[in-house]
Amino acid sequence: MRKIVGLALALALGAGAAGAQVSLDPASPAPIASILGWSPERQASGYRDIEHVFKTHTIKRGKTVHPLPVAAKQIDPTFTYDGKTWTIDAYMKAYRVSGLLVLKDGKIVLEKYGLGRKPTDRWTSFSVAKSVTSTLVGAAIQDGKIKSINDPVTTYIPELKGSAYEGVTVRQMLMMSSGVKWNENYTDPKSDVALAGGTVAEPGVNPMVSYLRKLPRAHEPGTTFNYNTGETDLVGVLVSKAVGEPLAQYASEKIWRPYGMDEDGIWMTDPGGQERGGTGISMTLRDYARLGLFIEGGGVANGKRIVPPWWVAQATAREIDNGTPAPGGYGYFWWIRPNGAYEAVGIFGQSVTTFPADRLIIVQNAAWPAPTGKALSAARNAMIEGIRKAIVSGS
Which domains does the chain have, with CATH numbers? Predict the structure, then answer.
């Protein structure tokens, strides 16, 4: 029987290694863990203005914008949750949703904002960034910079040779199954997530690489799912080393410019100046929707294939059991839902959920009062299913 880290805990801890980014004000450091305690007012302002809190790199957009036409018929569904009938407006107010956007067949059928947010405002992704990092792995394979998903990670990060990562493949990293021991418990100040990557311990070596290469092995690689945000940062390092340029620049070249995002993106960096592979991308609500469309379309932008033909199907399929109800699971930094959908998920209510059979994408940005929780997730799932039923029924 595999030892599984529960989904709720995994999502709750999805913010990333606690100190692995840099405050803009050295006299008043603001580690990522502090976000867990932000007041509602601070959330509403800080989540859309993260580049004025932490050091970031810009993901530059191009000259053209991918159109998101507004459908002639808009939806305004209701749904039932906790014994009550909810409107979308009531749901957004109760669950502090800053943006909700629904695409059907590539057209907007619902778009609403809250918490003072405007359509041009970005919103931080938390762990939705992991799915972007995964996509950049696919792009690097298509470009021939990563030769195979089954290559050892040490091929691209030689500093890991001789560590517990010896023999671990790129694919196993994307499945959160390296087998390396990692504790992602934010309530424990001595956990790995609290200690990893906060300072440059070895000049010339990424701080997360320095920390992770000292950890022991707990399981045989590829056998056990263990949610590990530090390791997703490591995949970001791997991509940067493979392609020879910063992640933000590569994301601009492979997604933002060719697909036509409407605004520049923002990507939080660690103390070594490396973008965080596991967290910290900010984009507009419509650009979250475009990210969903890009993946739904197989990773093709402006007629050019960005990832290999097989990539999206594998990345968004159940590659490993992660403790969610069958046939759910985990792909390559994508969560697989039991009802045929896949999604990118971040704490405090961020999600991009795609039902490929229905050509339906539902994007939510929020400032939940807690990183996650059964009731919060249940309400979001009820909202998603309510929207899906309205779309499928044509009501």
Answer: 7-393 (3.40.710.10)
Q: Which amino acid is at 365?
A: N
Helix (H) or strand (E) holding 345: strand 342-346
Please confirm whether the linkage preceding 31 is cis (ω < 30° from 0). Answer: no
Q: 221 Cβ partners below 8 Å, 6+ apart?
A: 167, 168, 169, 172, 177, 178, 179
pLDDT in tens, 326-351: 788 999 999 999 888 999 999 999 99
Q: What is the DSSP letter of 145?
A: S
Q: Which helix (H) or strand (E) holds 238?
A: helix 229-243
305's CB contacts (< 8 A; 6+ apart) are: 142, 298, 299
Distance, CA of 99 to CA of 118 (rounded, Å) = 9
pLDDT at 23: 62
Tell me how far CA of residue 182 lies from CA of 217, 219, 394, in angstroms: 9, 11, 47
Per-residue pLDDT at 7:
37
CA distance 306 to 320: 25
Q: Are 33 and 186 in contact (CB under 8 A)?
A: yes
- Tens-place pLDDT, residues 10-61: 333 343 454 565 566 555 444 445 677 899 999 999 999 999 999 999 999 9
For residue 379, which of 117, 98, 116, 90 has the smallest C-alpha distance? 90
Question: Among 13-27, 69-83, 223-237, which stretch is predicted with the lowest mean pLDDT?
Answer: 13-27
Task: Using DSSP bridges, classify how beta strands 107-113 and 84-87 pair: parallel, antiparallel or unpaired.
Answer: unpaired
The rounded distance, in Å, linking the Cα atoms of 217 and 179 is: 6
Torsional class of 57: left (φ above 0), alpha (ψ -120 to 50), beta (otherwise): beta
Q: pLDDT per residue over 355-370, tens digit each?
A: 999 999 999 999 999 9
